[in-house]
Specification:
Layout (H helix, E strand, L loop, with lengths): L5 E3 L6 E7 L4 E7 L3 E8 L6 E5 L2 E5 L6 H16 L5 E5 L4 E8 L4 E8 L7 E9 L2 E10 L2 E8 L17 E7 L5 E8 L5 E3 L6 E4 H24 L7
Length: 241
């Protein structure tokens, strides 16, 4: 479950899009309005194996039939732990390269207001190739951006000059984008337009910091999170502090 401050949209020009990534462990939730986009994440973590206690020793298994009770308890505990982590809220105006983000760290005890500036993405080459995504006819475009080739499909039926994460610069909404080297890939799996539900609010009262400065803090916190998660995976019966 996501945890953030929200408001209810009363406008009929909001478009909500959920994207999945190649790794399939995260969903990317985007809200587009006339002037800006807001996005955050939710976990889509797939449980392929899990620990069970056999004769006092924990071993990993994929047998969800024989160990159904243990599997459900483990999955519930894992998602509970993941749900405690507040996900960042990111916002950017379409006409700006400045990205603003509410970012939590140190077990949600610290809140930062992160500012980052991203490079222009305006040298797309639009082709005649098309692809249907969720009922929208999309046109293909390609770009070399920071020495990586990206292939995107966008629709002018949704006239938002943006896309998943920081992809942008086309005359319509990007519903699918992949890097040629396979390292990055997003595709829209759900679209709601017009959207009148909850929208996360960018909080600006955190500690002001640059992306470069925050990256140093994040690296240390990620090490701590990984250690905690590994301990949980080894022995889910031990309460994590």
């Amino acid at each position: 479950m996501l945890s953030f401050i929200t408001v209810i949209s009363q406008q009929n020009n909001i478009c909500f899009v959920k994207y999945s990534d190649n790794g399939n462990n995260w969903n990317y939730l985007h809200w587009y309005d006339n002037s800006k986009l807001t996005f955050t994440y939710e976990t889509n973590y797939q449980v392929f194996d899990f620990p069970v206690n056999i004769d006092g020793k924990y071993i990993k298994t994929t047998d969800t039939v024989k160990f159904k009770k243990e599997y459900l308890e483990y999955k519930e505990g894992l998602y509970k732990e993941l749900g405690k982590i507040k996900q960042p809220i990111t916002q950017r105006e379409y006409i700006s390269n400045v990205v603003k983000r509410t970012q939590y760290a140190n077990e949600n005890k610290e809140k930062y207001f992160v500012l980052d500036t991203i490079a222009d993405m305006n040298k797309w080459e639009i082709t005649e190739d098309t692809l249907s995504i969720l009922g929208f006819n999309c046109q293909k475009a390609v770009i070399n951006y920071k020495d990586i080739k990206y292939i995107a499909y966008f629709t002018q039926k949704l006239a938002y000059p943006a896309g998943p994460r920081n992809f942008r610069g086309l005359p319509g909404l990007i519903l699918k984008v992949d890097s040629e080297n396979g390292s990055i890939g997003y595709i829209a799996t759900e679209i709601k337009f017009p959207y009148t539900g909850m929208i996360p609010v960018l909080e600006t009262d955190g500690i002001p910091i640059s992306q470069k400065q925050y990256s140093i803090i994040a690296e240390e916190n990620n090490k701590k999170k990984l250690m905690k998660m590994n301990n949980f995976l080894k022995n889910p019966s031990i309460k994590q502090n």
